[in-house]
């Protein structure tokens, strides 16, 4: 097998820049081409990153492409990933992987038939901060995790995104758009979810864009924008998950997990780094010493400071796992179970009933310091 697998990207919107700019950090992958239904967008990204701009059909037939990254809007994730698999190529999708269990199981069947891999974002749970929490939990220092809280609340994407329409349509909303970061991290830390219950509301039926170039334009809201959920995990833990795009400000921590022997304060799962704090029984809260994890090292400007951003780590891990014949961490099973949880939350919000999960999964392998370093390209 080649030292590096050729990677193509379908979808050249905002998120594509992160993939193209960060891919050189990792070994095992080589960005070669990009495509978009808007060929001008593909040509612009190709020029920016010295790639080939191709039509979607050309990319699917390109013999130099082994893996295609699906960066299209959520509503077409399934159709695009299906086309990639049917073309005989591995696929790695942005979140959410699909919008229904049926779609995910169909993709799984197609992949297994051809011996192909499916991977999916988010890969932020591979970040140094979240892997430090994983090590803390796995070490037994917190005892069994029994409960916790998660809060991801703001006032929507219409204030910064140039085209925020799809965020407020079925397939998006705060649960399916931001929820994957939180739900996936909970699964990798605690394990699979057994059942969920939720309340969901849509306070505003339309939003006014305040970002350029469409400031002042009104867009419809056709999916719940405030959802309060309860997740019961297979290990017995009960976690509260509050998601909203109707909140201007709040004082809640992104994630807190309560164990039999202590509490851990987890930084925002939307990012790779951050400060981890914990308590040892009744002792005062303390900040953990810095962990020498490469995916926790700040490497990119964000606002007024630096942050750690290692997007494409999951893609690189999948490519290397293919070569090594081992499971990859951002797996189809993990992504599908997260979709099961999130769509279950939305169904519960609609019906007012508990919703049992249809799927389960194993926790992905931890990514310690040594394994993380092994994903990085050697510095020249």
From TrEMBL:
Sample GO molecular function, one term: nucleotide binding
Name of the molecule in the record: Gfo/Idh/MocA family oxidoreductase
What are the record keywords, sorted?
Oxidoreductase
Q: Where is the GFO/IDH/MocA-like oxidoreductase domain?
A: 130-264
InterPro entries, per database record:
Gfo/Idh/MocA-like_OxRdtase_N (IPR000683), Gfo/Idh/MocA_oxidrdct_glycsds (IPR050463), GFO_IDH_MocA-like_dom (IPR055170), NAD(P)-bd_dom_sf (IPR036291)
List each copy of the Gfo/Idh/MocA-like oxidoreductase N-terminal domain by range.
Answer: 6-118
Query: SUPFAM superfamilies recorded for this chain?
Result: Glyceraldehyde-3-phosphate dehydrogenase-like, C-terminal domain, NAD(P)-binding Rossmann-fold domains
State the organism named in the record.
Mesorhizobium hawassense
């Amino acid at each position: 097998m080649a030292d590096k697998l050729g990677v193509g990207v379908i979808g050249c919107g905002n998120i594509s820049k992160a993939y193209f700019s960060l891919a050189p950090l990792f070994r095992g992958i080589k960005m070669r081409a990009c495509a978009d239904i808007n060929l001008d967008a593909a040509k612009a990204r190709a020029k920016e990153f010295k790639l080939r701009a191709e039509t979607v059909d050309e990319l699917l037939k390109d013999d130099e492409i082994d893996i295609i990254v699906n960066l299209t809007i959520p509503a077409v994730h399934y159709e695009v990933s299906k086309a990639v698999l049917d073309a005989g190529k591995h696929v790695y999708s942005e979140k959410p992987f699909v919008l229904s269990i049926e779609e995910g199981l169909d993709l799984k069947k197609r992949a297994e038939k051809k011996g192909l891999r499916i991977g999916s974002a988010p890969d932020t749970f591979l970040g140094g901060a979240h892997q430090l929490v994983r090590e803390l939990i796995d070490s037994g220092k917190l005892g069994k995790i029994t409960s916790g809280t998660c809060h991801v609340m703001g006032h929507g994407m219409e204030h910064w995104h140039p085209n925020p329409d799809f965020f407020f349509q079925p397939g998006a909303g705060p649960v399916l758009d931001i929820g994957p970061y939180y739900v996936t991290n909970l699964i990798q830390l605690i394990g699979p979810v057994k059942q969920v219950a939720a309340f969901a509301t849509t306070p505003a039926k339309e939003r006014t864009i305040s970002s350029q170039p469409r400031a002042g334009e009104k867009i419809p809201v056709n999916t719940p924008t405030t959802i309060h959920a309860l997740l019961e995990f297979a290990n017995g833990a009960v976690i509260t998950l509050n998601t909203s795009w109707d909140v201007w400000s709040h004082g809640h921590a992104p994630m807190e997990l309560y164990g039999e022997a202590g509490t851990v304060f987890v930084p925002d799962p939307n990012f790779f780094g951050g400060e981890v704090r914990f308590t040892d029984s009744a002792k005062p809260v303390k900040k953990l010493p810095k962990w020498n994890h490469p995916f926790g090292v700040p490497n990119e400007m964000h606002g007024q400071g630096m942050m750690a951003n290692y997007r494409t780590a999951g893609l690189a891990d999948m490519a290397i796992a293919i070569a090594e014949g081992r499971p990859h961490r951002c797996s189809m099973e993990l992504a599908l179970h997260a979709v099961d949880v999130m769509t279950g939350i939305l169904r519960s919000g609609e019906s007012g009933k508990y919703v049992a999960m249809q799927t389960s999964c194993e926790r992905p392998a931890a990514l310690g310091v040594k394994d993380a370093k092994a994903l990085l390209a050697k510095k020249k």
